[in-house]
Amino acid sequence: MNFLGMLQKNNVKIVKVTLDGSKEVHDKRRIHRKDKRTYDKILDGIKEAQANGIKVIIFVNVDAQNINYIPQLVNELKENEIKATILLKRVNERSGTKYPYILTPKEYFERVFKIIREYRLKEVKVYEFDVFYASLFNALSSGTSIPAKLRYCGGVTPNVLIFDPRGDIYTCDYLLGNKRASVGTYYPEFKLNTNYYIWKNRTAGKIKECFNCRLSLLCSGGCPMEAYRAHGTLYKPYCEETKYLPDYIKLWLSLRREDND
Ligand code: SF4
């Protein structure tokens, strides 16, 4: 059975694939061990998925090397009649690897917003906002009230746990393998430790700096993992991404307003 057959058999409706820029840029970064170039093959796969009713989300890992090629990628996808959601994600320091092309959140958001505005890239979404604040953007599109966001991500949501192959349980995938950060074990015995309660109790209501912040019911204290990395405790805020949210909302609204004019 081919790959498409497997997806259909298992009733898969959405697939996520990565394209790290236009053809020229992607083929330099994402190299297949045998075939070397991968861009055309991925595009063929996307077309086949779409022709069979499977929705495709294209992730772009963005850093200093490929940020200027985003408009070119969008054009190439249009030329190929591909109508996928394009989700930009900043290559970040969370994996702990040293990589020289990482953009700071400030550099990244300023440049990405400028590119989206200049090239009117309405099909492009920004992972840090469109994923974590999806209900906010749904509310803005539908004119309904904005639901309060009490917990930042799955890591601090009581029922999200990640089981690794060694028998340990984690709550954030960036911490996998870091045993000190595990929240318990499931083999040989199921047992949760104090980290579990520290993670699962984190809301903006527990962070002093967030008490008087106008964004607290949208942001819920920001990324707990980044807060831990920066301050050694989860009960501190991480605002680096959130502080660009108002600018993104303005950009987002101005692009949507054009659709209605
Ligand atoms: S922006 Fe900062 S201070 Fe405001 S709620 Fe978010 S983490 Fe807390």
From TrEMBL:
**Please, which domain of life does this record's source organism belong to?**
Archaea
Q: Which cofactor does it need?
A: [4Fe-4S] cluster
* Signal peptide feature range: none
Q: Which GO terms describe its molecular function?
A: oxidoreductase activity
InterPro entries membership: 4Fe4S-binding_SPASM_dom, Aldolase_TIM, rSAM_sf, Sulphatase_maturase_rSAM
SUPFAM superfamilies the record matches:
Radical SAM enzymes
Full protein name: SPASM domain-containing protein
What species is this protein from? Thermococcus litoralis (strain ATCC 51850 / DSM 5473 / JCM 8560 / NS-C)
Q: What is the lineage of its organism?
A: Archaea, Methanobacteriati, Methanobacteriota, Thermococci, Thermococcales
